[in-house]
Amino acid sequence: MSQIHKRFNSDQVKELLERYSKKEIERRYIQEILGIGKSRFFMLISQYREYPQLFTIHYERNTPPRISKDIEHNILKELSIEKGIIENREIPLKSYNYSFIKDRLRKKYRQKVSLTTVIRRAKKHGFYLKKPKRTLHDREVLTRYVGELIQHDSSHHLWAPAAQEKWYLITSLDDYSRLILYAVLVKQETTWTHILALQTVILQYGLPYCYYVDSHRIFRFVQGRDSLWRKHHLLTDEATPQWKQVLEDCNVKVIHSLSPQARPAYRRQGQDRETLRLAPGPPHSNLCQRRYHRHQTRPANPSTGNPSV
Question: How confident is the model at residue 215, as a pLDDT?
């Protein structure tokens, strides 16, 4: 139950104690009305009898705040950085991560604060966003074991703002265990980069039952409707892209999502706060260069001219 001074004023409590002193009301009724115990009641009656005219239940905090001004400043500083990242439309980030700010204060500033303290300061100073209502999926894929379905997709975003350059994040995720099997940043998305993703996953983890992808031209041949100016000779799925051919050769089934809600959401995998705050440095650019170098140094396939798998 909340404290007395939040539910009653001093005059109301004073009147009850006065009636108790005159034996007009029993103690147990007063305790029930005020929601207090026996010890708290006798402490109040003692204060009332000692100074009846000055009696009050008004509470004033005399202890200093639990965190220093330096800690308060650093919390607001990190929250401001987080807000700038969220407001940048090029960055796929839509919510605050207060746990990250708590850990960052401990690692960077050697300051220990509770998560509740960070959240309270965030709400007080306007660094808070309500959680959006989740849209129910009209289609849902259910899996029962590891390797039954691999979600595969790519997203083009400004993953590291300091780099001032957008990259493609290619990822593969096991639907049942939620294990990230593959995650690589590349400057240019091609069929070959996605074939390399297949090679890495299959050689390291084995053949899955099926892959779950969208209807991007790399994964699926989709033809629009005929017009007065053009007649199509091939319809949807009557041509097989190279990426899909690789999976068919491996006897792996391919499932295409039929609605935007059913597409795998990979943006949250790139929502790493440390990456978003880094300067343009070797970890990301070198990663792309290493992937590009592997692609260039592979022996070419005589029939296609592309590097062999």
Answer: 86
Residue 107 exposed, middle or buried by CB count within 10 Å (0-12, 13-18, 19+): exposed
- Is 167 within 8 Å of 181 (Cβ atoms)? no
Report if pTM > 0.70.
no
- 148 close to 117: Cβ distance less than 8 angstroms: no
pLDDT score, position 303: 39
Beta strand 150-157 with 167-174 is antiparallel
Helices (H), 51-156: 69-87, 98-108, 115-124
The burial class, CB within 10 Å (0-12 / 13-18 / 19+), for 210 is middle
Select from 216, 153, 143, 218 the least CA-distant residue to 180. Answer: 153
Read off the pLDDT of residues 254-300 as tens digits, 9 standing for 90 and up.
Answer: 998 876 544 444 444 445 566 566 544 434 444 444 433 443 444 44
| H or E element at residue 31 | helix 27-34
The answer regarding whether domain 150-224+232-297 maps to CATH 3.40.50.300 reads: no
Domain ranges of the chain: 4-50, 69-124, 150-224+232-297
Distance CA 38, CA 45 (A): 11
pLDDT in the model for residue 164: 79
Letter for the amino acid at 234?
L
d(CA 21, CA 55): 14
Q: What six digits make up the tokens of 2?
A: 């909340």
CA–CA separation, 4 vs 11, rounded Å?
Answer: 12
Q: How many residues does the chain have?
A: 309
Report DSSP letters for 130-142, one per residue.
Answer: PPPPPPPPSS---
Residue type, 176: Y
Tell me which residue has tokens 């593969």: 172
Q: Which residues of the chain have pLDDT under 70?
A: 1-2, 59-65, 135-141, 223-237, 259-309
Take residue 42 and report the two structure tokens written for it.
Answer: 């006798």
Bridge partners for 151 per DSSP: 173, 212
